[in-house]
Amino acid sequence: MTHLCAVILASGSSRRLGFNKLLVKIDKKTVIERSIEPFLSPLIDKIFVVVGFEKERIIKLLKKYPIEILENPLYLQGMSASVKAAIAYIKDYKGAFFQLGDRPFVDKSLIEDMVYIFQTNDKDIIVPVYNKQKGHPVLIKPETYIKDMEKIKGDVGLREIIDKYIENVVFIDAYEGIHLGLDTQEDIENLKERGYDIEKD
């Protein structure tokens, strides 16, 4: 066992887009499936998926995957509520990935690189960066930051913790996929222009 887990934050209501972006298909596979699959690795002992908005549809879709569903009834309060919903389940792991459910272009090689750095470094937090912008997933040592996680509010996720403990962070060079999501119709059109087949559920 590696004593590492992953938390996929998949409870948002996709307000800006107007329909559930996690169920959009990119080249015949949904966004949420694409976001989970890089973590289906011997390096990750457990995958938790935090659901809220349209949870029944997400749960039904993910039945075939070896994951554990966590429910976030307070999903309208933002990303922080999803992080808090996972705290009790991750506190005993040496490391926990936090990934957004709408990041379908992260691949396993990045996960492997982050695990290696985490296991061979004395820093507590690993964050990928592309074009000078921080992205996801974030790999963090839970036991050190549980109290801070309990205090976060709104839609900021772990950003406040990363900024507060910047001296404990390793930033690694990554690629555009750590940022690419489906927040707006413009994002969808951008993917179509790149040649992806996009289907709304």
Would you kindly provide a written description of the structure presented here, covering whatever features stand out?
The protein is of the alpha/beta class and 201 residues long. It has helices spanning 31-36, 55-61, 79-90, 108-119, 142-151, 159-164, 185-193, and strands at 4-10, 25-26, 29-30, 46-51, 68-71, 95-100, 125-130, 133-134, 138-140, 169-173, 198-199. Strands 1, 4, 5, 6, 7, 8, 9 and 10 form an eight-stranded mixed β-sheet that branches. The model has no long low-confidence stretch (mean pLDDT 94).
Layout of secondary structure:
Elements (H helix, E strand, L loop, with lengths): L3 E7 L14 E2 L2 E2 H6 L9 E6 L3 H7 L6 E4 L7 H12 L4 E6 L7 H12 L5 E6 L2 E2 L3 E3 L1 H10 L7 H6 L4 E5 L11 H9 L4 E2 L2
Which percent bin holds the helix content?
25-40%
Largest sheet: 8 strands, mixed
Chain-averaged pLDDT: 94
CATH homology superfamily name: Spore Coat Polysaccharide Biosynthesis Protein SpsA, Chain A
Shape: globular
Q: Rounded to an integer, what's the Rg over CA atoms?
A: 16 Å
Kindly, what is the distance between the CA atoms of the first and last residues, rounded to a whole number of angstroms? Answer: 37 Å
**Classification by helices and strands:** alpha/beta
Poorly predicted ranges:
none
User: Judging by the overall fold, what is the CATH architecture?
Assistant: Alpha-Beta Complex
Proportion of residues in extended strands = 15-25%
Q: What is the chains' assembly state?
A: single chain
Tally of alpha and pi helices: 7
Q: Any idea of the CATH class?
A: Alpha Beta
